């Protein structure tokens, strides 16, 4: 592992980046493959302003297994994890979740095969309001990411991606305007597509996009991950991939950079959740380290 870490540090130096959050530590929130963090959504700050409440999804597939939990994270203390009850059709393999802008208690969760679940979360229960497939699903698409971005007047768009696989299959990043029918069904507009290759990791099984988040200034940040099996070793990175904007008329503008900027590497962990914290330069990250469980920590990557 020491050799692995040294190699990552050399790569960061060459690219002009520096490891972020170097003094932070990973905090364990799950002990096995059923309790890893496959996606997370910021819910609120704690009352004293020093911690974060977030919802996390688990990629379980069998009936009755946990799909959703609430965590409270504060640096330097053990996170609190509270399972939530899932009320409605059970998804298979949830991989991402995002809060709906301007609608407290409403979230959108995404399963790997492209089914979107509109949720209402109150107390200890998440109720399925409605669900629908993503538009424009490509052959072999495997989704691990979902993010929402809005204009100042509340127009909203969604970003999601086929994760890709190694050198032969880059990720495909999709984006489209998003609205909801009066009964809650997610409705997508015209779809924009872009291909994306992560600068790191570069393993044969690299998932070029394992999650997406958008900063306040419109930067598109992505996590990438390498997975050698249920017991690892794992490797991850966070990269500045481009910019996105939704105009006041609902028009979507998405631009990916030709040279993505590597912001940090995280050997030994498989990041599958990345969420910029509002009014902060921090992102809360989560890992799904299979048999090794799940971890969370903050990293400073969401600045201007």
How are the secondary structure elements laid out?
Elements: H1 2-15, E1 27-30, E2 39-45, E3 52-57, E4 68-73, E5 80-83, E6 85-87, E7 94-99, E8 106-111, E9 115-122, E10 125-133, E11 143-150, E12 156-162, E13 171-180, E14 186-188, E15 192-196, E16 207-214, E17 219-227, E18 234-246, E19 252-265, E20 271-276, E21 282-287, E22 294-300
Parallel strand pairs: 6-10
Antiparallel strand pairs: 1-22, 2-3, 3-4, 4-5, 7-8, 8-9, 9-10, 11-12, 12-13, 13-14, 13-15, 16-17, 17-18, 18-19, 20-21, 21-22
Structural descriptors:
304 residues, mainly beta, 5-stranded mixed beta sheet, 5-stranded antiparallel beta sheet, 1 helix, 51% strand
Folded structure, characterized:
This protein is mainly β and 304 residues long. It is 5% helix and 51% strand. It is built from one helix and 22 strands. Strand 9 and strand 10 form a beta hairpin. It is globular and about 45 Å long. It starts with a helix and ends with a strand. The N terminus is likely disordered.
In short:
With 304 residues, the protein is mainly β. The protein is built from one helix and 22 strands.
Helix/strand-derived category reads mainly beta
Return residue spans where pLDDT drops below 50 for at least 5 consecutive residues.
Answer: 1-23
Number of helices: 1
How many β-strand runs? 22
Computed CA radius of gyration, to the nearest angstrom: 18 Å
Order of SSEs: HEEEEEEEEEEEEEEEEEEEEEE
**Helix share bin:** under 10%
Looking at the structure, what is the overall shape? globular
Distance between the termini: 33 Å
Mean pLDDT across all amino acids: 92
Binned strand content:
over 45%
Major β-sheet profile = 5 strands, mixed
Biggest sheet: strand arrangement: 6-10-9-8-7
